[in-house]
Design goal:
This protein is α/β, with parallel strands linked by helices. Helix content is 42%, strand content 20%. The protein has two domains: 91 residues, Trna Endonuclease, Chain: A, domain 1 (3-Layer(aba) Sandwich), CATH 3.40.1350; 43 residues. The strands form two sheets. The protein has a four-stranded mixed β-sheet, covered by helices on one side. β5, α2 and β6 form a beta-alpha-beta unit. α1 packs across α2. The radius of gyration is 21 Å and the shape is extended. The C terminus is likely disordered.
Length: 137
């Protein structure tokens, strides 16, 4: 995202279709620090000013940190009027059983992507995809 000629990089930006708002997620591989709240507040203001449509709800911020001190987070967020949540994450070595058995393997994903790429290449070779100039003219 560019603001006044400077580039800034949001970790994750989503659009929540039911709430009709953007969701900015910032990931920190360190414990919560008060300056993280300021950075996230800046991103929320920038998204609201540059991306959000007039009929969208205000952008929501979520800050995921390695750990948090609840009182420090409360003090850091006091006075900020934007919807911001702070949570800590835990890394796990293996997926929980329900997810592990329901998600495709890496090999299955790679095979599906290969089939998709082959299908796209075949469409281009067959002339199924009209050139953009043909669509415009």
């Amino acid at each position: 995202m560019e603001v006044a000629g400077d580039e800034f990089f949001i970790d994750l930006l989503f659009y929540h279709t039911r709430l009709k708002c953007y969701v900015v997620v910032e990931l920190k591989a360190q414990p919560f620090r008060p300056e993280h709240a300021g950075q996230l507040n800046f991103y929320l203001s920038a998204v609201d000013a540059q991306i959000k449509a007039s009929d969208d709800a205000p952008t929501i911020g979520l800050l995921l940190c390695r750990s948090q001190n609840r009182l420090v987070a409360e003090y850091a967020l006091a006075g900020i009027d934007k919807p911001i949540g702070v949570a800590e994450y835990q890394l796990v070595r293996a997926l929980p059983e329900p997810l592990d058995t329901s998600l495709p393997s890496i090999e299955e994903i790679e095979a599906e992507l290969s089939r998709d790429l082959e299908g796209q290449a075949a469409q281009v070779d067959d002339g199924d995809n009209p050139r953009m100039s043909d669509e415009i003219g």
